[in-house]
Amino acid sequence: MKVVISDDYQDCIRHLDCFAKMAGHDVTIHNDTVKSVDEIAGRFRDAEVAVLIRERTPISDEILEKLPNLKLISQTARGINHIDLDACTRRGIVVAAGGGNKNVTAELTWGLILAAARRIPHEVNSLKSGGWQSALGTRLNGKTLGVYAYGGIGNLVAKVGSAFGMKILVWGREGSAERARADGFEMAASREAFFETSDIVSIHLAMRPETRGIVKREDLDRMKPDALFVNTSRAGLIEEGALEAALRSGRPGRAAVDVYEDEPVLGASHPLVGMENCLCTPHLGYVSKESYEEYIGGAFDRVVAFANGNPIDVINPEALG
Q1: Are 135 and 122 in contact (CB under 8 A)?
Q2: One of 43, 204, 222, 234 is an active-site residue; which one?
Q3: Above pLDDT 70, what percent of the chain?
Q4: Residue numbers of the domain that contains 210
Q5: In CA terms, which of 61, 150, 301, 314 is 20 to 30 Å from 308?
Q6: What pLDDT digit, counting tens, does each position of 202-245 carry?
Q7: Are residues 50 and 196 in the same domain?
Q8: The pTM is what?
């Protein structure tokens, strides 16, 4: 089958062990991202299979109209909000998705927390420039870690914080409350108390229409001047422009983010990247050799199964008819 893969930023897919699964298929890999309908459609025009890496490329009905040969979209994770599923089903295009590893994002979250709290990037740059111990970091022991949503990632982040001797405070829906209490963690008395009390707030919500902009400027304004806000989930969870404005006003005093509204961010073009009180990484939450083998290897398994007439992990079985 003719397979097209886009957005392989690191040019790593052909070097993964799992790429051997594509033997016998005609595979084209693009290392950049295109944004317009015509550019995306042109990239996938001849494809029978589109392998999508996370949500890097949106697939709309307008794009699908220009892809007459497309039979399968194999997604490298469970999230499919960037795909017009109804349009795929109407056109008989199968969407298959699955897989994911919670640990790798939790690890990156703690990397950001530790780096920001102990001023590690600043000290590394200072040392490389000839300096020595130029700033004071903050210890975590005894501080309050606020975990917004106690799900697959949030519970891992909370348990690591507890191991460091931090007080864990949870906010979220009833499901979060039940899971947190079962693990012995405290729920905040109110949303206001959650933001006011936490020394660090780390958000771990899925991006859905109902969660878009769920963290407001007024929430951030409640945080302490020396507090840290961490986002390794999705930028759209924060009210547009709220984090930049809050950081400029000094509440919270610092942030660490791995996600942006429009990715990739090139040329340091996002306002957060240039802010001294914001530690920014280029969406590394799920980026590791092991997780790529799992995510992309799973997508390749779906291609092979479909080609063999035994599709797996199908989200829209109606399309198989």
Answers
A1: yes
A2: 234
A3: 100
A4: 102-280
A5: 61
A6: 999 999 999 999 999 999 999 999 999 999 999 999 999 999 99
A7: no
A8: 0.93
Q: Judge if 271 and 179 occupy the same domain.
A: yes
The catalytic position among 179, 222, 283, 302 is 283
Q: What is the CATH number of the domain that holds 11?
A: 3.40.50.720
Residues 90 and 148 in one domain: no
SS3 83: strand
Q: Are 151 and 173 in contact (CB under 8 A)?
A: no
Query: Tokens 């001023």 sit at which residue?
Result: 119
- Which residues contact residue 182 at a Cβ distance below 8 angstroms, ignoring those fewer than 6 apart? none
Q: What residue type is assigned to position 138 of the chain?
A: T
Tens digit of each residue's pLDDT (9 = 90 or more) over 132-174: 999 999 999 999 999 999 999 999 999 999 999 999 999 999 9
Q: Is 263 a catalytic residue?
A: yes
Q: Are residues 133 and 275 in the same domain?
A: yes
| Catalytic residue flag (residue 119) | no
Same domain flag for 246 and 127: yes
In this structure, are 220 and 192 located in the same domain?
Answer: yes
